[in-house]
Please model this.
Amino acid sequence: MEENVRAHRKTREGVVISDKMQKTVVVKVERLVTHPLYRRIMKRSSTFKAHNDERIAARTGDKVRIMETRPISKDKCWRVIEVIERAK
Model:
């Protein structure tokens, strides 16, 4: 059942840039876009606040996968599902 629910929710992969808040991490997600006029590939980034519960415990520098969820607070509507790679 849980796999079916996750099928239609957005997921992103990014790097944790801040873990100074309680139960919240800030994740930077980078993507490549083409410039509309010059056709040059550019790197763009977005930051998302994601809920970080105790069992996952992502830290600064970790590569994580986040999933869209219901609004948890004013700015937070993503949650960390897994840590892909730990920081060195």
In short: The chain has a mean pLDDT of 93.
